[in-house]
Specification:
251 residues; mainly beta; Porin; 8-stranded antiparallel beta barrel; 4-stranded antiparallel β-sheet; 15 strands; 63% strand; elongated
Length: 251
Amino acid sequence: MKSFFMVNSLCLFLLCIMLNPILIAQEATTQEEDYPYYKWSVRLGGGYVLSYLDFDFNEEIELEGVPADLLHFDVDSGLTKGNYTINFEAKFQVPYLRHWSLGLALDYNVLSVEDVELAVQGGTLVIAKQGEVAKFHTVSVVAFLEYRHPIKMSSTWLVPYAKFGLGVNINTSNNDDLLNTKGASVSVMAALGIEYYITPQIAIFLEPRWYYNRPDVYFTPFDDQTKFTGKAELSYFTCLLGVQFYFGAKS
């Protein structure tokens, strides 16, 4: 929770810094007739990942051929080491709707599973701990709709925006003999961000973004005959920073 508030506060602080000229500049207006509307654009960004990592396993299992109950399962979550995301997007302005865009986002995300503790009651009570368990690698392909509102700032533009998308997550593990997912999962993306134009064709952006990812998962901590099955909460929050390139924009 401490890591969550740290990242969330940092994102809000950075957004406030970028939005501060709007609050103090009397000349700031929305003279949209001067805004360099575009035809299409691409962007590249990245950031650290804050996860709410959790697992919801079925409680009734077999341990060495004996019916057993999963009493306890705990895993480290938050801003753990090795968590990051890389983002690539392409979008097109909707004809006759200058504030709206349609696009496709491709995200690559790495999420570490660490400090796992579990207790299983079968013929005997088994308690196990492990530090580094696995890394989940997720490729998310999401179609999104974006709304933009350009604000004139002296000789440049500040553009707040919001976006929402649906797609698919493709999840893999670097230790699939121990912990792995089964198939793809539904992806939901929501984001708020702001762009600052360096030139009429290039802008830098800051974007707090949330991704939903809850795939089926299995865990085999002891042997092939002892398998935990259930759901993994791989949803995450990130604060992306990157650059956007616009094409077909008028000067």
